[in-house]
Amino acid sequence: MAECSLSQLSPGQSGRVCRIEGQGTARQRLQEMGLVRGTTVKFVRAAPLGDPIEIRVRGYSLSLRRQEAESVMVEREGEA
User: Fold this and answer.
1) Distances (CA, A) of 62 to 8, 29, 42, 44
2) Beta carbons of 25 and 1 less than 8 angstroms apart
3) Cα separation, 1 vs 51, whole angstroms
4) Model pTM?
5) pLDDT in tens, 8-43
6) To pair with 17 at 20 to 30 A between CA atoms, which of 30, 36, 42, 49?
């Protein structure tokens, strides 16, 4: 499986979180929202101008700025 950032997934694709790059409060905030290693996330859709993006994680929808999603590294699992 190829590793990429969450922002590089296409709508319908899923991935498993490998790591969150960066440090400090931004990283902690993402982890508190459920983006921890081993969690499966699904890219649902992007806004018309590409930012923000909507993902599905742990049974709920979450909107992230594309910049935040770039710091979340995932292993692609294919289309769902």
Assistant:
1) 16, 13, 10, 10
2) no
3) 26
4) 0.84
5) 999 999 999 999 998 889 999 999 999 999 999 999
6) 49
